[in-house]
Amino acid sequence: MPELTALCAAHDILPAVADLLPKQAAPDRHYALQFASAAGTGSQSGTLASYAPPAGVRSLWAMAVHGSAPQLQQASDNTLVINAIGVLENHAEQASNCGLPPDTPLAALLLARLNALRADRSLTEALLQLRQQLHGYLAFIVLETQAADQFFICSLGWPLYLGIRNRDLHICTTELALARDIADQIHTVQSGVLLRFGPHGSASLHGDGSEHPLILLAPAQLGKFPHFMLEEIYAQPAILAALAARSQQGLSPVSPALRSDLAHVTHVLLLACGSSFHSAQVASYWLESLGGVTVQVELTSEYRYRDSLPPPQTLVIAISQSGETADTLASLRHTQAQGLSASVAITNTPGSSITRLARHHLLTLAGLERAIFSTKTFTAQLLMLYQLALALGEARGRLGPERLALAKQEMARLPALVNATLQLAPQIREWAQQLAQRHSLFVIGRNMHYPVAMEGAFKLKEVAYLHAEGYPAGELKHGPITMVDSTLPVIACLPWNNHAEKALANLQEVRARNGEIFAFSDAALAPVERLHVIRVPGGLNDLSPIIYTVALQLFAYYCGVARGNNIDTPRNLAKSLSSDQPSGQR
Ligand code: G6P
Q1: Which of 155, 468, 487, 558 could be 139's S-S partner, Cβ–Cβ 3.0 to 4.6 Å?
Q2: What region holds the SIS domain (predicted)?
Q3: Among 279, 321, 354, which residue has the most ligand 1 atoms within 8 Å of its CB, making it the best to mutate?
Q4: Is the whole-model pTM more than 0.90?
């Protein structure tokens, strides 16, 4: 298929067009250009070699380059302009629906269908409807002449790649290589998703009337960090701030339709694997205490083969950073076959398979994660799950305004406290240098910090290839304590809350066996023999797991570096698993 590409910039688009054209291969290939200027819209086409910049172009550029003839088709009336490429498999049927001959050009056909659908609908509704009726491999851009600095774009049969460079230039293209050439950061938007795209941001538009902004966070300090993992760890305050800000502004990510499902829920089934499973486990504490429901957390590689009997009023929450992990998709389908229809997917990938499978979806808006490991998407999942637990408690009449206000205050404080945690990197690196060559580690925590410890140990395995076991602190004495001696360090998450006393007692048992403890704590604990302490920021109750997660991410990262590992692309791991086996792809 030829390429369809759109560029937007807040200012002059011409330098970007001139920069991009040579990347489109041979000079004898054709381009077709659609632009919007202050004076209106216009178009131009020719060979790449003969390209001359049009005057006064402001914000839109769409092109197709293929063989020796331009494949981009344009059609317009007074209100709409459509650019289209590709093959519509049901072209003849669609043409006959509008009384047009079967050889009507694609763009003209789409324009006619759209105008028919617009008779009793908004443009967005008409586009969503149109998308359902099209089968084939095609991509189209639609713009309203009255609002030509933003437009709608959709690709069927192929994904779209959305990117940003230098905070200013936005690209949306069917051509991955082109997006990679131009953009610092790329979002993949799966086939069939309708986007509204423009210089002031982009959003995916959905059949239930909701729209989800796609926040492309241009990495402010790209190049400063030696690895994407570290860059992504440091991106967390900004991502969490953006998510928290929406809730401060009263913009709940929970749509009215999801809220009405939440009112009837008595049980929650969380489905996930890998890191997402640990975020599900943390969330189970919030869902119980804030939502007042019973909660079950399942690993999807197991759950899909189980004959479980979830109660009828169950909300299924499927969590997957990629939205494409095969076991998680299969488990979600399994619950649907069991008759559970209320489901919500939490994912970082707009338009991914999971968003199409679940009845509702919530996007974590953390931007593309280039490292294999979940770091920024993990904490964004946590914050999203927290907001969902609050919405559940509210919908079920359990949480009053005062409790919700407290939660909002925590969310508002969170980004600065994560930032303060990142300032501890030099101390954490020292611990890592000291411990990275050990054979084994325990990571322990209690209550919500138990899954945090699990995630910390998981990260140590993924990044540092270091055997680490995440354990509930209270369980050490039931067996694993036999392994504790001066060679097996214990990393402890020790927030000063009402579980602290019990956790301290567990640590005493470790010290009594000559074990060496490395505790992250918000308390002013005095280090004593075999007890090392890094004081992390306090001031959070519900969201404290995020602080300890970030500290453990840094610890795993520096252990991986100390062991000389390939940080961003570790051996044997894939970013999303589309089958039961690692595919080796990023
Ligand atoms: C892979 C990655 C893990 C990730 C897991 C789940 O195995 O190596 O880091 O946590 O997939 O991915 P998902 O996209 O479903 O959250």
Answers
A1: 155
A2: 258-398, 431-570
A3: 321
A4: no
